Amino acid sequence: MSLPRKLMIDGEQTVETTRTHVKKLFVPFLVLLAVCVAAGFLIASIGDKGDGKAGWVVIAIAAILIAWGSVLPFLGWYLWTYTLTNKRLVEQKGILTRTGRVIPLSRINDVAFEKNLNDRLLGCGTLIIHDASEQAGLELDDIPRVEAFHRTVTNLVFEMHDQQRNDEPV
């Protein structure tokens, strides 16, 4: 899911779009698995006893738990994107209410990344971007291939700063 063309500035092109690492879906997957196993066990235990309403109650409760514990986290993960263009970095998130943060590349002062042992094993990390604003730096957690993304952001920032230096009157 890239940045929609209607949100782009003249001359702007998408360089890279990413979202957090799929490891964020591990717990929602376990919830899905546990609820399905528990619901299947309960429905099999109930069998043909009673008038069949108990089985439908179990299915309804399982559906609610799956929606709350698996579907909503998946949608949140899927709809939370980071888009790097040749002019800015855009973070967009939200299911019903979309929010975003835009950092122009010309305002970025520092780009760093962190990787703990788990991140190193899974090939992801946290990208930390500081800009020239009053707000705290933007932390992009669990970015896949964080070193490559870091390198791309850094190269674009250097190009932007060099271009600004060359455009300044002497």
Largest beta sheet, briefly? 4 strands, antiparallel
Average the pLDDT over all residues and give the rounded result: 88
- For the secondary structure, the number of strands is 7
How many whole angstroms does the radius of gyration measure? Answer: 22 Å
Strand order of the largest sheet: 1-2-3-4
The end-to-end distance, rounded to whole angstroms, is: 43 Å
Structural class by sheet pairing and helices: alpha+beta
The helix content is: 40-55%
Write down the CATH class of the largest domain: Mainly Beta
Q: Domains counted in the coordinates: how many? A: 2
Superfamily (CATH H level) name of the largest domain: Pleckstrin-homology domain (PH domain)/Phosphotyrosine-binding domain (PTB)
**Strand/helix succession:** EHHEEEEHEEH
Large-scale geometry: elongated
> How much strand content do the residues show?
25-35%
Our count of helices gives 4
**Low-pLDDT segments, ≥5 res:** none
CATH topology of the largest domain: PH-domain like
CATH A-level architecture of the largest domain: Roll
Keywords: Membrane, Transmembrane, Transmembrane helix
Domain YdbS-like PH: 77-151
Organism: Aeromicrobium wangtongii
Transmembrane segments: 25-44, 56-80
Summary keywords:
170 residues; alpha+beta; PH-domain like; 2 domains; 4 helices; 45% helix; elongated
